[in-house]
Write a structure and sequence with these properties.
The complex is a heterotrimer of chains A (about 240), B (about 55) and C (about 220). Chain A is built from 7 helices and no strands. By secondary structure, chain A is mainly α. Chain A has one domain: Up-down Bundle (Four Helix Bundle (Hemerythrin (Met), subunit A)), CATH 1.20.120. Chain B has about 55 residues and is mainly α. Chain B has a domain of about 25 residues. Helix content of chain B is about 85%, strand content about 0%. Chain B is built from 1 helix and no strands. The N and C termini of chain B lie far apart (about 75 Å). Chain C is globular and about 55 Å long. In chain C, about 85% of the residues lie in helices and about 0% in strands. Chain C is built from 10 helices and no strands. Classes of the chains: A mainly alpha (about 240), B mainly alpha (about 55), C mainly alpha (about 220). Chains in contact: A-B, A-C. At the A-C interface, helix 4 and helix 5 of A face helix 7, helix 8, helix 9 and helix 10 of C.
Chain lengths: ~240, ~55, ~220
């Protein structure tokens, strides 16, 4: 496998794990006591949730790294992480709505977990839009990094909302709150989405880096990304 | 919430289906975008070498 | 500190000189309040119940105009670059502008209250409490709003970008302000006002410190 193939391998591994975990969860895991078979949605919903928050947290890390140390590669990774985080976050809301309809009777409810999650997805979508509208690469990088730092305040609130407030949504899924019969398919799928997400961020960062090279290069011939330093960071 | 829900498999399939669609769709979009970016760079590189030669 | 006061003085002076714009923004907010009432119709009880929500929605929409305006003069004739060339701490510039915007939004909010009282029959005897909530809510809008106004003033699609970036962010402050205002208008039998005000205060503390910290990266060149 050539140099460029590793992200595809990682994503492929993730996909395989997802297929395995999903089949286990759909066909072999026991039926839940109160929610019946509808509860099997958990095997995709919870891993999506964990990895959406993880992607956005990684994006926050990249934004901070860029602001403190500079380097276009951090900007590329930042863009990738935010986009993947938004995709997973939006998917999360759809999965949640499909689970909510039979269990809560409504597609959506304005409780703390759902509200803060919707806010989070909208906020980071806005940052993706910001990146589209700013043409100067240096400004785009700094501004979107600043915006991510500010928007990230919501992410821990999303996670802890079910502990801090009286929420319709269940508590976090941990070995303490989830019966052991459900653990394995959940874990397998969690790693599945993790690897898929990592492959995605890797590939998307590659795309961002290549686009940046095109933007930063003079019309004839190119300059390697590593040789160009953007503003930002201490010197 | 008391009582036991029976059935509801259509919701399960809907959820897994949406998930599969998004996972496949985004992966596809990545591949397509990467490929078109490669093509764009090749085109530019060949144009550059034309000019310089 | 003196830099902050100088910046604040500059911004208050600017606001005073462009006060006709503020009147226009107030009219916009009052019109919004009127239009919102059409969503409910002639249902007096419902109008009273949702008055708090509509007040803050109107203020939120008006704030995008006011906040964008606050950077208008900095953009013309490259005044912003001039300001930054001075050996002044950009944080002083930020807090001067943010406090000036806070005062302006508080004024707007207070001015919209009589409009709300008349249109929605939503009066209250607890005027100091209401004023306090308006100050805290305006602070929640002003801190991130000033930061993002500074950012978007420098790009072409500013009228779309500012609300797009600001609105999701201020949802917690909006929520707190709406709930607190509604409790003041409709009565607070279970004593929840403290909790919602607490949310507002926490939001304000976090964002006033965070936005001041990052402001200089937004205006550097």
């Amino acid at each position: 496998m050539g140099k460029g193939g590793w992200p595809f391998a990682v994503a492929g591994l993730g996909l395989a794990l997802l297929v395995w975990g999903s089949i286990w969860g759909l066909a072999f895991a026991p039926r839940e006591q109160y929610m019946g078979d509808v509860q099997r949605i958990m095997y995709v919903h919870v891993p999506t949730a964990w990895n959406a928050l993880l992607a956005l947290t990684f994006g926050f890390g990249c934004a901070v790294a860029f602001l403190l140390r500079g380097g276009w590669r951090w900007d590329a990774r930042h863009e990738a992480a935010i986009e993947v985080g938004v995709v997973l976050g939006a998917l999360l809301c759809f999965q949640g709505a499909i689970w909510a309809k039979p269990t809560w009777g409504v597609w959506w409810d304005w409780d703390p977990r759902l509200t803060t999650t919707a806010v989070m997805v909208f906020a980071f979508s806005g940052i993706l839009a910001l990146r589209r509208f700013v043409e100067d690469p240096a400004r785009r990088a700094v501004w979107s990094a600043v915006a991510t730092v500010i928007a990230f305040v919501d992410v821990p609130i999303v996670y802890f909302s079910v502990n801090w407030w009286n929420s319709l949504h269940q508590l976090q899924s941990t070995p303490a709150t989830v019966s052991s019969a459900f653990h394995w398919p959940l874990r397998i799928n969690a790693f599945g989405v993790l690897f898929l997400m990592s492959g995605w961020i890797w590939l998307r960062a590659r795309l961002a880096a290549e686009r940046l090279e095109g933007e930063l290069a003079p019309p004839l011939g190119g300059i390697e990304l590593a040789q160009r330093q953007p503003l930002g960071g201490t010197s | 919430m008391s009582g036991i829900l029976t059935g509801g498999w259509e919701f399960v399939w809907a959820a897994y289906g949406v998930t599969a669609a998004v996972l496949a769709g985004y992966t596809l979009s990545l591949v397509v975008r990467l490929r078109s970016e490669r093509l764009r760079r090749e085109r530019e590189a060949s144009r550059a070498s034309e000019v310089s030669s | 500190m003196s830099q902050f006061l100088a910046a604040l003085r500059k911004d208050l002076l600017l606001q005073w000189r462009t006060r006709s714009q503020l009147v226009a923004v107030f009219v916009f907010g009052a019109s919004a309040l009127l239009l919102f009432s059409f969503a409910i119709g002639p249902n007096a009880a419902a109008l009273r119940e949702f008055a708090g929500g509509f007040l803050w929605l109107a203020l939120l929409l008006a704030s995008t105009l006011a906040l964008a305006d606050s950077f208008e003069s900095e953009m013309s004739q490259h005044a912003l670059e001039g300001l930054l060339l001075l050996p002044a701490d950009p944080r002083a510039l930020y807090y001067g502008k943010a406090v000036a915007n806070l005062l302006q939004l508080t004024l707007l909010g207070a001015a919209l209250v009589p409009v709300m009282v008349v249109l929605y029959d939503a009066g209250t005897a607890r005027v100091p409490a209401l004023l306090g909530i308006i100050v805290l809510g305006a602070a929640g809008l002003s801190a991130p709003g000033t930061l993002y106004a500074a950012m978007t003033a420098q790009v072409r699609a500013r009228n779309t970008l500012l609300p797009l970036l600001l609105f999701p962010l201020v949802v917690p402050a909006l929520l707190g302000a709406v709930k607190a205002t509604s409790l003041v208008i409709l009565g607070d039998p279970m004593g929840q006002l403290g909790a919602w005000t607490g949310l507002l205060v926490a939001f304000d503390v976090i964002y006033w410190s965070l936005c001041g910290l990052v402001f200089e990266r937004v205006v550097e060149d």
